[in-house]
Amino acid sequence: MPDILREGYSADVIAMEQEYVLQTYRRPEFVLVRGEGARVFDSEGRAYLDGVAGIAVNALGHGDAQVVAAIQAAAEGLIHVSNLYHTEPHAVLARSLVERSFADRVFFCNSGTEAAEGALKFARKHARRFSGQEKTGILAFSGSFHGRTMGALSATATEKYRAPFEPLIPGVCFAPFNDPVAAEDAITDEVCAVIVEPVQGEGGVHPATVDFLERVRAACDQAGALLIFDEVQCGLGRTGHLWAHQAYGVTPDLMVLAKPLANGLPIGAVLMTQVVADTMVPGDHGSTFAGGPLVCRVAQVVLERISTPEFLADVRDKGEHLAARLAALVEASQLAREARGMGLMWGIECEVEVAPILSAAYRHGVLACGAGPNVLRLLPPLTITLAELDQLVDRLEVAFDEVEGRD
Questions:
Q1: Among the three residues 306, 334, 365, which one is the final residue of a domain in this structure?
Q2: Cα angle 100, 347, 116; round to 5
Q3: Helix-strand-coil percent breakdown of the chain, rounded to 5?
Q4: 381 and 406 in contact (C-beta within 8 Å)?
Q5: Which of 117, 230, 238, 391 is the most exposed place for a label (fewest CB within 10 A)?
């Protein structure tokens, strides 16, 4: 265990990070050392209500007894053998995902960006088999975020993420999110796949409309294109439904998952119909670490917990409560313009950049994060209590008041 009681511990850790870690993140000036439920604690003993959950990852919170037990039990058996060999947890988790979704097959990977890469590859292979060499186009949408590797980044709309690494993969175009007419016009016979988040996360927490997703689905059918739902952030209970698209009554051909699936251990997955799976053969795609027995045993625990009707109903109830509290915050604050979201995935769009509000929230014991420069995002553990949600919003109100200059 680190000697967190040693004088200067936090400063030393921060200095070490700044000297040796590639500086691709701006982190606040504290060091987190442990977590319990919906709270995390820094090396100075300060507690924070966790409104980020590792960016929608720690769905069952910190230190969950079942997750800890699953990790301990799995570590005593096999941790890793690669995909060259059969293991039971890998097969059981795939079956569980199929039984709880539209899918017939699952491909495991290690992250959301890997899942998006895989789905795009599978779509192009499918089009090559059924439609020939020319059907390679990919349609994504404004505000989208699908990852930072080259294929996933090519389908990510944010210019500041894309520009330093261009040229990206060809054949990707963008249409306005939630504009069904523009989407229909863009889904031509040259498009092999359309990728969309039912609820955009990094792009500012924007739920899709029912009409938009229904017409995208119909246009994909008309053009012979595959529909990919990116539920890396909005899936697995986050919206109060097991899969976010279930609230819309629209079914994809492929779905990509990752963040919460193993409550903090790295895992991603591509779910697909059999017709998509039939286009892939051994050697077409792979991953050394994916679907390992330890992470799959933990993911099985998470999936079984979250997928119960009682758990999902509880998320919906807490989401309604949070929606009401955030609406009151927006009404009372001159800095807040709008609150939008579903379940326990919310964004507060602000009149100003949110960085000072996030800093004030840290000072008042809340972790929150941004979704673009002007949106404060909340993604608390799905196990957070109503009382803790009230505390979180109460502290956010103080942070807004502080930045606004009110006592």
A1: 306
A2: 45
A3: 40, 20, 40
A4: no
A5: 391
What is the residue-wise DSSP string for 212-274?
HHHHHHHHHHHHTPEEEEE-TTTTTTTTSSSSGGGGTT---SEEEE-GGGGBTB--EEEEE-H
pLDDT tens sequence across 332-347? 999 999 999 999 999 9
The structure's pTM equals 0.96
CA contacts within 13 A on the Cβ side of 87 = 20
In a domain, 384, yes or no: yes
Q: Residue 238, Cα to own-chain centre: how many angstroms?
A: 9
pLDDT in tens, 150-168: 999 999 999 999 999 999 9
Distance in angstroms (rounded) separating the CA atoms of residues 17 and 121: 36
Range of the domain at 19: 9-63+310-404
Which amino acid is present at 200? Q
CA distance linking residue 211 with residue 143, whole number of Å: 18
Residues 281 and 164 in one domain: yes
In the listed set 306, 341, 364, which residue is the last one of a domain according to the structure? 306
Tokens of 366: 């809340």
SS3 call for 336: strand
Q: Domain holding 187: CATH number?
A: 3.40.640.10
